[in-house]
Amino acid sequence: MVKHRESRPGQKAAGGLGAKPRRDMPGKPPAKPAHASRPAKPSRDHSERTAEPRVAASAAAAPERPLIVRNGERPPERVPVILESLGAGDFHLIDSGNGLKLEQYGPYRIVRPEAQALWPPTLASHVWDNAEAIFTGDTDEDGMGRWRFPREALGETWPLQLLGVDFLGRFTAFRHVGVFPEQIVHWAWMKEQVETAKRPLKVLNLFGYTGVASLVAAAAGAEVTHVDASKKAIGWARENQALGRMEKLPIRWICEDAMKFILREERRGNKYDIILTDPPKFGRGPNGEVWHLFEHLPLMLDICREILSPKALGLVLTAYSIRASFYSIHELMRETMRGAGGVVESGELVIREAGLDGRTPGRALSTSLFSRWVPK
Ligand SMILES: C[S@@+](CC[C@H](N)C(=O)[O-])C[C@H]1O[C@@H](n2cnc3c(N)ncnc32)[C@H](O)[C@@H]1O
């Protein structure tokens, strides 16, 4: 029997991992890789009710090792935590609605699809229509499309700055602009760790893309190892380094399969003080190594733990595979109930493991999101 228990944390909102549409990357895989083993379906894809049996981590293409059996207490938890990135440097989110978002990236206003923006926009349509760049095309989250420049034709790149680091904004074929600004909050945290550590820190940036996080860490004084499977992405990262005249900073740019790299670091006994890992849902290493988030993440984290230094300051995982956020339905509910008074409360519905005896609370399993309006 499932016991119903309501938890009302003090925070203003409840929820787990922020959910963002998946992003494309250089070397984006085909929708259905021919020889990849099929991953288990993410349980939060609520449209998908039939769960496939989970594929064991050992199905991965890369050489692997078994998971370490870990005893000891689970670390105490602090949930829910909503990490909120406001604008920083040249970026801020201007408005959202009708399945779109309007963002400011330096001199440009940009309109891109945003499946979670179910509510109407706040600003008048002429503001949206005045954007410098509009991404049109496949409404599928990972879909190809093209950029339209209603006012004047723009070049492929333009200079930007975040947290004191220069880099290039970039109109890519898959709607992305060369940076994921929601991660500013992680990067600001990391910068502070590096600046206040009173010792040189080693930072590992896995799936590092255009290297903004690596540059922030290095500029703050860290020794950085940046790993990405895409030559093109590493090239963009190096361009960003050159733009900010940061060539002398200690960054190792490594074009390799992330899993292979960390397995090697583990064998060699190399350690890091901070690890950032931002794996895509699906990816490929330079030699065709297959990465599937739901198959390989447990092993990846297991290895990351082993290569954390004894005085490590953090292991930061970002996952975008979850396709909805409670904020989507929450804001929609609030828009819908305007003028009704009361309160809208939103979050996730979870089932707590209860053990064989039905009385031993274990881990929380997220099943769905909820939003409810109540009169008081
Ligand atoms: C989610 S992005 C990282 C974004 C970056 N951390 C940021 O916030 O700007 C994913 C990156 O993973 C890389 N990638 C995909 N599969 C990989 C693999 N097997 N090993 C290493 N990198 C991979 C892609 O080339 C891409 O640059």
Short description:
The protein has 376 residues and is α/β, with parallel strands linked by helices.
Question: Gap between N and C termini, in Å?
Answer: 30 Å
Mean pLDDT: 81
Strands side by side in the biggest sheet: 1-2-3-4-5
Would you list the SSEs in sequence order as H and E?
EEEHEEEEHEHEHEHEEEHEHEE
The ligands bound in this entry are: S-adenosylmethionine
Number of strands: 16
Please, how many helices? 7
Radius of gyration: 22 Å
Structural class: alpha/beta
Strand % is: 15-25%
What does the overall shape look like?
globular
How does this structure look, described?
This protein is an alpha/beta fold. Among the domains are: 58-81 and 322-374, no CATH class; 91-154, Immunoglobulin-like, CATH 2.60.40.1180. It is built from 7 helices and 16 strands. The chain has a 5-stranded mixed beta sheet with strand order 1-2-3-4-5, with no helix packed on it. The chain has a 5-stranded parallel beta sheet with strand order 10-9-8-11-14, with helices on one face. Helix 2 (184-196) packs parallel to helix 3 (212-220). The longest helix is centred in the C-terminal third of the chain and has 14 residues, at 293-306. The radius of gyration is 22 Å and the shape is globular. Mean pLDDT is 81; it is low at 1-24 and 27-62. The structure holds S-adenosylmethionine. Residues 23, 25-27, 179-180, 183, 207-210, 212-213, 227-230, 233, 257-258, 278, 280, 283-285, 289, 291 line the site of S-adenosylmethionine.
